[in-house]
Amino acid sequence: QVQLVESGGGLVQAGGSLRLSCAASGRAFSSYNMGWFRQAPGKEREFVANIRWSAGTGSTYYADSVKGRFTISRDNAKNMMYLQMNSLKPEDTAVYYCAAAAASFFVVLPSRYDYWGQGTQVTVSS
Known about the structure:
mainly beta, globular
């Protein structure tokens, strides 16, 4: 069982930066693949980034829309995951969710994730 709590959202101007955090409880955190998703009003939940449990070289994956601007990371010792978001755009406005998956494949699909946080709002003004 893993419980997830996001923080760090807020209002920022276009071109600015935010760092989201995801605090996890549960002893098995390090064995889960972790992801960030987002959902804008009237739209489906959208994959943002994924990081595998070992967080070794080549273990991250990003949606094309955020590649080069966002960086996902994790600290297994602290049961934490992060999303550094730079060069933010108004179209990045959404509720951002962290999620944990036992699955290793098709990690862009929300259905592959077993646990979800409550979300944190990110608003980017133009």
